[in-house]
Amino acid sequence: MKKSKTIGFTYHLRKTVIREYRKKPIALRLKWLYMGNLLRMGYPEEIKKLHDSFRLL
After folding, report:
1. 51 Cβ neighbours under 8 A, 6+ residues apart
2. What residues are paired with 10 via a beta bridge?
3. What is the pLDDT of residues 7-53, one digit of tens each?
4. Residues 6+ apart with CB under 8 A from 11
5. Spatial contact of 44 and 52, defined as CB atoms under 8 Å apart
6. 55 against 46, higher pLDDT
7. Residue 39 is inside which H or E element, if any?
8. What is the pLDDT at residue 46?
9. Residues 10, 1: contact at Cβ < 8 Å?
10. Under a CB-based contact definition with an 8 Å cutoff, are residues 4 and 10 in contact?
11. What are the b/e assignments for 2-35, b being 16+ CB within 10 Å?
């Protein structure tokens, strides 16, 4: 992850990392997403709004 020249961050993943991720079972990947969503539910509204502001860029 590196600081973008404009706003926010850009992410660079090697193709090998993406290939390895694709090998993970779908159920596991969905569980990771679900657990991340559960974690986010516990965040204060202020933090959620901050996260959402970065998603819209």
Report:
1. 40, 43
2. 2
3. 666 678 899 999 999 999 999 999 999 999 999 999 999 999 988 88
4. 1
5. no
6. 46
7. helix 26-41
8. 94
9. yes
10. yes
11. eeeeeeeeeeeeeeeeeeeeeeeeeeeeeeeeee
Q: What residues are paired with 2 via a beta bridge?
A: 10
Structure tokens given for 12: 């660079």
Write the DSSP string, 12-32: ---HHHHHHHHHS-HHHHHHH
What is the number of residues in the chain? 57
Residue entry with tokens 């850009």? 10
Q: Which of 2, 22, 21 is nearest to 12 (CA)?
A: 2
What letter represents residue 48's amino acid?
A: K
Look up residue 42 and give its two tokens. 């516990």
Instruction: Give the residues across from 9 on adjacent strands.
Output: 3
- For residues 11 and 54, the answer to whether their CB atoms sit within 8 Å is no
